[in-house]
Structures are given as C-alpha cells and as structure tokens.
Amino acid sequence: MKKSLVLLALVLMPGTGVAAQEVKELIYLPSARLVEAIRTASAAAPAPVLATTLEQRDDHASIMVRRTESSGPELHEAFDDVYIVHEGAAVLVYGGTYAGAQTTEPGELRGGTITGGTRQALAPGDVIVVPAAVPHQVVIEPGKAIIYHVLKVRRGK
User: Fold this and answer.
1) Tell me, what CATH number does 76's domain have?
2) Distance in angstroms (rounded) separating the CA atoms of residues 77 and 105
3) What is the model's pLDDT at position 26?
C-alpha cells in the first residue's frame, strides 16, 4: 500500500513529466513530393545527370538525382551521404585510396581517382550510408540509369 501511494504521489507531482516543446525545425517531405521529383527526373531530357534539390539547410540537404552516366569521385569532409535507391541500378565505389582530387569549396573534394575501393551494387529499395571523409563514386553501366534520393547530413548534428 505504501509503495502504491508513493508511486501515485510521484505521478501526480507537478514538474515531473516531460514538458511540452515547440518544434521549429521539423522538416516534412511528403511522399507525393518525392514521387513527383522522381517523375520529373524520369521524364527529363536526356541530360546525363539531373539533380533536384528538395530541401537545403546549413546542416543537411535532400536531393533527388537521376543519372545515366557515372559521377566523378568525391569526398565530403563534414557530411554523411545517405543514398535511397528508387529505380535502376548502379555500383557505389567507396573507400580505397583517393588521389588527384581538387577542392571545389571548403570541405568538398571532387575529381581524381579512387584506387582499391569497395564496390557495392545498388538496386531499388537499397539504403546505404557513406560516412563523412570517405571517398565515393556512383558508377553506371552504359545504357543504364539510376534514380536515388541522397540526404546529406552534417556529421555531429
């Protein structure tokens, strides 16, 4: 009986619950918007790469990408890349030795070559996270295409 009264007193005590919190930074990307971005990318002119930015902030970005040719190698010192494949197929090459890159903006390296990287096949429904500071490249076979959603998230956020 004493235990029940103590528990009841704790439950009823003011200030012991979780306070209501105002959320100002919530980002909602409805699936209809993603589907529309995919349709737009699929119906696009035969450009080898079409990237549609859905959301851009200092600490993250959300981008839909359609590729019919390989990307160049790249490395982001402060951002993880989360790939979600919607259509098509490709190979993600990551890790290994990265040489010959140029800094295109602070913390962003592009170009050059990756030697000895790991090759991971990508197919619809796959999700892969490339940590910050890991070189990576999307490789497309001739005549093939891929549509994926990439979420860029600043490391430490």
Assistant:
1) 2.60.120.10
2) 11
3) 75
